[in-house]
């Protein structure tokens, strides 16, 4: 009995190499090669995409060279150059646009519609658009949706004209001498509160971002759009949704739209195209009930269901295979890979001169970035480019602490988290989503203004202390300290530097946070602050994968 207990307590790897050879017949066991991304496999898993499939996709993408190759309506093509991509020199579609737009508009899609119309059985087309961050996924689904809306308008006009002719003929048969009834001036528009297309996004910031792009396109394409979220009052939401002129495209969050549909189910009775943007978020546990409600109520009239995401977690992969087994997946070759144009640097906080002081290392790194900008325009701070820096932390409470410390060191920093009011969130993100190459006179004036006085002290007041005015100020540098709230879908085109104050919890967070820079073909730089308790092996493997251009799976 005692011997058995001793065997149980014996360590499984306590045997010597000689004992191992004897137990294996004198043969040495072959040593296992170290698996690539061993540490990353311990993080939240991503669904793998075979490299054979990636090669075939690359060959297909190379067949398209410009937007003129797409079978879009002339007005939609015109809106690309005049509104959506105005100011860009090379109007070349991105890989996801080359892959998705022809399929959403191509012959196979229209052939399926003809088959379903001929058989009398309606088939809903299901697509998953998966591409790396900053690759133009919004335009990839928005252009085909608008094209379908305009084509449907032509059909509706023809049907309405035929209906009027039939009604006129019936009226004349009944009473030849009857007068034509006057038009009903108070009759609501047939599209009032019944949009043709709905785009669901997880946050009010994304509602504003996608809504602004949609309104830009409406100047040329001529359609009616509306955006609703918790950032607007009930009266504004009601006026936009039930406008007398009707609505074609609605951008909303799932919770709000699902709540409205409970009281007015007719709102989803006309939807032909439903887009689920950031699908990995909208189909997780927090958003899934509301998103599923919108999908279920839209299904009777739905022609296309389009899911869009920058990552495919295994949970999302299994969910789609169960609920949408026929969904067609349009995946770019660089999915789950951080672009090689983004460089990743590592700062060891434990070494000199920081000695474990991570917040000091963060301030010093930002000062180095700001000084590099000033060196390009020495003695002329008003003409120097504004450097915009995103700092990501894991905890919401840490955002305010880091922002206040950076402000005390003369850095223009603000915090953004779930506790920030909606209006201020939009204003804060506005400075990081638009490009202003040179500092405007008002901005330069604000930057050079004395950072003291009652307003300055009141803004930096905490529960028990007051942050004193800094002795020096870093010009032409703006810093936003945020959590994952600022890492999902926000088009931070103006950001060139991302600092990971905390090492992300998962591979997905790595991809989304570093994806805030290097967008739309631009170069970017990420910096990770590694402390004593951080996963150095994860950071090392991410850096190796970025250098080799490999997917982090």
From TrEMBL:
Gene3D superfamilies: P-loop containing nucleotide triphosphate hydrolases. Its EC number is 3.6.4.13. One of its GO terms (molecular function) is RNA binding. The keyword ATP-binding applies. Residues 7-36 have a biased composition (Basic and acidic residues). SUPFAM superfamilies: P-loop containing nucleoside triphosphate hydrolases (SSF52540). Residues 364-553 form the Helicase C-terminal domain. Keywords: ATP-binding, Helicase, Hydrolase, Nucleotide-binding, RNA-binding. The keyword Zinc does not apply. Residues 118-330 form the Helicase ATP-binding domain. SMART domains: DEXDc, HELICc. InterPro entries: DEAD/DEAH_box_helicase_dom (IPR011545), Helicase_ATP-bd (IPR014001), Helicase_C-like (IPR001650), P-loop_NTPase (IPR027417). It catalyses: ATP + H2O = ADP + phosphate + H(+). Residues 1-36, 432-454 are annotated as: Disordered. This is RNA helicase.
């Amino acid at each position: 009995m005692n011997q058995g207990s001793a065997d149980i307590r014996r360590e499984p790897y306590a045997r010597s190499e000689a004992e191992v050879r004897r137990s294996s017949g004198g043969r040495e066991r072959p040593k296992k090669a170290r698996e690539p991304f061993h540490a990353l496999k311990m993080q939240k898993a991503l669904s793998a995409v075979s490299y054979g499939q990636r090669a075939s996709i690359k060959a297909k993408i190379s067949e398209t060279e410009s937007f003129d190759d797409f079978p879009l309506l002339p007005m939609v093509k015109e809106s690309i150059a005049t509104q959506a991509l105005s100011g860009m020199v090379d109007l070349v579609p991105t890989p996801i646009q080359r892959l998705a737009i022809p399929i959403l508009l191509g012959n196979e899609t229209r052939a399926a519609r003809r088959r379903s119309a001929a058989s009398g059985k309606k088939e809903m087309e299901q697509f998953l658009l998966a591409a790396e961050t900053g690759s133009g996924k919004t335009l990839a689904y928005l252009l085909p949706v608008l094209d379908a809306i305009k084509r449907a308008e032509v059909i509706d006009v023809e049907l309405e004209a035929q209906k009027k002719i039939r009604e006129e003929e019936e009226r004349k048969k009944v009473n030849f001498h009857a007068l034509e009834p006057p038009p009903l001036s108070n009759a609501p528009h047939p599209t009032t509160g019944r949009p043709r297309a709905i785009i669901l996004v997880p946050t009010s910031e994304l509602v504003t971002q996608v809504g602004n792009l949609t309104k830009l396109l409406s100047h040329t394409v001529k359609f009616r759009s509306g955006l609703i979220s918790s950032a607007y009052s009930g009266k504004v939401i009601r006026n936009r949704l039930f406008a007398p002129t009707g609505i074609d495209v609605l951008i909303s969050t799932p919770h709000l739209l699902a709540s409205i549909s409970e009281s007015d189910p007719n709102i989803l009775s006309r939807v032909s195209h439903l887009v689920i943007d950031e699908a990995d978020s909208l189909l997780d546990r927090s958003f899934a009930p509301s998103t599923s409600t919108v999908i279920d109520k839209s299904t009777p009239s739905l022609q296309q269901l389009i899911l869009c995401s920058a990552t495919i977690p295994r949970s999302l992969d299994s969910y789609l295979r169960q609920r949408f087994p026929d969904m067609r997946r349009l995946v770019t070759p660089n999915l789950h890979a951080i672009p090689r144009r983004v460089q990743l640097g590592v700062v060891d906080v434990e070494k000199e001169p920081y000695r474990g002081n991570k917040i000091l290392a963060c301030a010093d790194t930002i000062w180095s970035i700001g000084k590099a900008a000033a060196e390009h325009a020495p003695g002329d701070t008003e003409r120097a480019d504004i450097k915009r820096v995103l700092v990501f932390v894991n905890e919401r409470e840490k955002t305010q602490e880091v922002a206040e410390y950076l402000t005390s060191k003369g850095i223009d920093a603000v915090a953004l988290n779930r506790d920030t009011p909606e209006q201020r969130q939009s204003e804060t993100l506005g400075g990081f989503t638009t490009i202003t190459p040179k500092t405007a006179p008002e901005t330069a004036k604000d930057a050079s203004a004395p950072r003291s006085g009652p307003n300055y002290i009141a803004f930096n007041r905490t529960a028990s202390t007051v942050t004193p005015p800094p002795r020096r100020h870093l010009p032409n540098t703006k810093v936003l300290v945020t959590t994952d709230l600022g890492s999902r879908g926000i088009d931070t085109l103006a950001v060139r530097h991302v600092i990971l104050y905390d090492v992300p919890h998962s591979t997905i967070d790595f991809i989304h946070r570093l994806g805030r820079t290097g967008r739309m073909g631009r170069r970017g730089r990420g910096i990770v602050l590694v402390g004593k308790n951080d996963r150095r092996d994860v950071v090392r493997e991410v850096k190796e994968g970025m250098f080799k251009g490999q997917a982090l799976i």
